Amino acid sequence: MRLPFGLNAVFSIQGPRSIYVYSLFIGLLSGFGAYGFNWALTWTESFTFGNLIGYDPGTPAGDLHFHSVGSVGELSPLWILFLPAIGGLLVGIITSFFCPEAQGGGTDSLIHAFHFNEGKIHTKVPFYKAIATILTLGSGGSGGKEGPTAQIGAGFGSSLANFLGAGARARRTLMLAGTAGGLGAIFRAPLGGAITAVEMVYQEDIESDSLVPCILSSVTAYLTYTSIAGSGSIFSVQEYSLNDYRHIPLYILLGLLCYVVGYFFVKVYHFVQDIFSKLPLPNFLKPAFGGLIVGCIALLFPEVLGSGFGLIQRMINGEVLTSTSFGFSGPFFLLAVAIFKVFSTSLTVGSGSSGGLLGPSFAIGGMLGAFVGTMANVLFPELNIIVFPFLLVGMGSFFAGVARAPIAGMIMVCDMIGSYALLPALMIVAMIAVVLSHKISIYRNQIKNRFLSPSHHWDMNQDIMDRIRILDHFTEFRKYAMVSEHLSLTQLQTNAPGIQASDFILIGSNDEYKGIVSLRKNRILPEYEQELKNLITCGEIVQDVPPVCQSDTLGKALRILLEYDVDKLAIVEDNRCLGYLRYIDLFNAYQNEVKNKNKLRKAI
Predict the structure, then answer these.
(1) What are phi and psi of 582, to 5 degrees?
(2) pLDDT at position 459 over 60
(3) How much is the pTM?
(4) 568-573 and 576-582 as β-strands: parallel, antiparallel, unpaired?
(5) Closest by alpha carbon to 145, among 214, 63, 221, 79?
(6) Bridge partners of 569?
(7) Phi/psi at 537 (nearest 5 deg)?
(8) pLDDT tens digit string along 189-229?
(9) pLDDT reported for residue 361
(10) pLDDT tens-digit profile of 550-584?
């Protein structure tokens, strides 16, 4: 569905300002979409965790507006074992028979759409993704809720671009703006959502062209969401600042630990993905099988169920986390939860269930940070370690390492706690994790940088053409389609088929350049040829198209051809027209330049 023809000129995207306006609108829709999704998910979790499983995972402060898990019954091993499998079966039916794109993490599919599919997302994907994720997380699956909210926003952006008849570049920008809106709303992170959207598509770069639209969308979505759900950050944190520099070696150790466990997480997740893709089971049963294994893990560690954000809030509040099944606590219990969270997340998302990887990455990193802080308290009680700063720094740093998104990891955590006091520690730990993790990424569709992305091939080619001068490839120029300004239009129409041209270079008596006449835009209809014969000359309908000289570049020539919608361009020296170049001439020169460079590179 597209805009009616009459409205196209009014509402079509005509430049950056149009993109900015539509980004605000997408942010508004994303904020409402994130609120509706979070309400439905929290209601589902309150029933399954409270009435069936009998386990309270806790509630982050920013979600207290929604219904939390109410009265909790007795812990039910039967439901713990089988409920994730039941949820996986329902998700498998949805992804196998209704919407295959709804399976998995969601973020990776957005990255693929950006690079390889011109930012196109099927309209049905956000709807089915939301339902599948509610079933996955509501049944105890280990995943995050950022996947569907990002896809809801991205779906709004992509669909709006299609409706407006926008090109691929605008569609990609609006898709990322929607992604930023979904993340900014669900995590209450207006700046973090925008930075994550533009950074997650590359391993060593950011999509800078989309930064402003993403900020506008993310802030709008955040304001929309908090206007309904109440203001404040997702986590409630007491005041803290890094003022004891004896803690810095511990943060360095945390960075090394985030790299080691992050490397393990990426390998396990990709291994599980590959195993389940080859598993000799019907596709709709694979998420159920993965859910069954998650249920077995949860029998020992129910703490791995869900996103893990509730556990993080409980630990920030100062609660000593104790094993639900075994009744023990301490640093190694926290490490065990982190390791088993790696397996449960890999099995949930890697088997085909629907859930994000960003949320579990925060939870795993938080447990690693809590492990370091708690262990330091045991070994060095004189340092008076406060655990929750290590927990929060671990969250952002672990995600920064596994997702190759250092700025996003740091800013996201600062937004989620409503303070930048931990930024110095985050910078230290995140940089260690990212530098060591330079060869791994949890997102398989990430591309190293924009120079290697199919979405920017044309930009890179244009950059090459701006370095090639016309005189480097041309010494003589075509003159077949050069005509006098005094030639009549009817005579030009008669001669055109023999010359096989539709656009003509117009010259004066001394070969001076006058402009271009296009028969595609100026033509006498056959029924009027006799009456208007010789009355209209080419000089009277000339189009003022700038010429180029031999020292100009192919890039400049190509831009003029595109801007003035002509198929050839005059080459002028000392006000004398030497001939012209066509589209095909420019591209042949470009191809020859590339071939010569490749031969030289091979010779070296």
Answers:
(1) -105, 170
(2) no
(3) 0.77
(4) antiparallel
(5) 63
(6) 581
(7) -95, 160
(8) 999 999 999 999 998 888 888 999 999 999 999 999 999 99
(9) 94
(10) 999 988 898 898 888 888 999 999 889 999 999 88
| Residue 286 backbone dihedrals phi, psi, to 5 degrees | -65, -45
Percent of the chain residues topping a pLDDT of 90: 51
Q: What is the mean pLDDT of the chain?
A: 88
Residue of 57 and 526 predicted with greater confidence? 57
Rounded to whole angstroms, how far apart are CA atoms 76 and 126? 33
Which residues 6+ apart lie within 8 Å of 445 measured at CB? 108, 109, 111, 112, 115, 116
Encoding tokens for residue 154?
A: 């991205």
**Per-residue tokens: 12:** 């079509």
Residue 140 and residue 48: Cα distance in Å, rounded?
8
What is the layout of strands, in order, in the sheet containing 482-484? Answer: 482-484, 503-507, 513-518
Judge contact between 385 and 376, C-beta under 8 A. Answer: yes
DSSP state letters, 376-392: HHHH-GGG---HHHHHH
Burial 13-30 (b: 16+ CB within 10 A, else e): beeeeebeebbbbbbbbb
DSSP code of 552?
Answer: S
Separation CA 560–CA 482 (nearest Å): 18
In whole angstroms, give the CA distance from residue 431 to residue 407: 9
Q: Whole-angstrom Cα distance, residue 497 to residue 269?
A: 63
- Yes or no: say if 543 and 564 are a contact pair by the CB < 8 Å rule: yes
- For residues 213 and 19, the answer to whether their CB atoms sit within 8 Å is yes
Alpha helices in 437-567 (DSSP H): 457-465, 489-499, 529-532, 554-564
Residue 398 sits at φ, ψ, to 5 deg, of -65, -45
Confidence of residue 64 (pLDDT cuts 50, 70, 90): confident
- Give the model confidence (pLDDT) of 305-364 as tens digits: 988 898 999 999 888 888 887 878 889 999 999 999 999 999 999 999 998 899 999 999
The Cα–Cα gap between 421 and 252 comes to 18
Query: Among candidates 115, 114, 112, 109, which has minimal Cα distance to 132?
Result: 109
What Rg, from alpha-carbon coordinates, does the chain have? 30
Q: How far apart are CA 386 and CA 255, in angstroms?
A: 18
What residue has token string 């300004």? 485
